[in-house]
Specification:
2 domains
């Protein structure tokens, strides 16, 4: 499971559920869970998550990681990035061919968490046909 500390749980639920179409699992009011293929995404208030970890909630710039969403085609990379931007994400890097032979781009969700959307023709990590 990946858990993101978010500034507005309501706004983030709207972004991930309605904007990206992630299936929301029944949750308590202070947390949201989305069932993904082979994993889960959790959203939790930034202040509360920082307190739980015992670290300050302030922060800016690059957090040292990105989340990745692999898709089946270059066209799907474009579609997912477009969907995210339409839902309120910030386009960070337009989709393009990349040095390792795939096709990818980046967006930041409403809290600035980086997402790479990628098509890797050499390594499929999705469900088996």
């Amino acid at each position: 499971m990946m858990t993101l500390g978010v500034n507005s749980l309501t706004r983030s639920i709207e972004f991930y559920r309605n904007g990206l179409g992630f299936p929301l699992h029944e949750s308590t009011p202070e947390v949201a869970f989305f069932k993904l293929d082979g994993s889960w995404l959790g959203l939790y208030g930034r202040e509360a998550l920082a307190k739980d970890a015992g670290v300050p909630a302030e922060g800016s710039g690059f957090n040292g990681f990105s989340l990745a969403h692999n898709v089946a085609s270059e066209a799907e990379v474009e579609q997912v990035i477009g969907q995210a931007v339409a839902a309120g994400a910030t386009l960070i890097k337009s989709a393009q061919r990349v040095f390792w032979g795939g096709y990818s781009g980046y967006f930041a969700d409403p809290d600035g968490h980086l997402w790479e959307v990628a098509h890797n023709p050499f390594f499929w990590i999705g469900p088996e046909d």
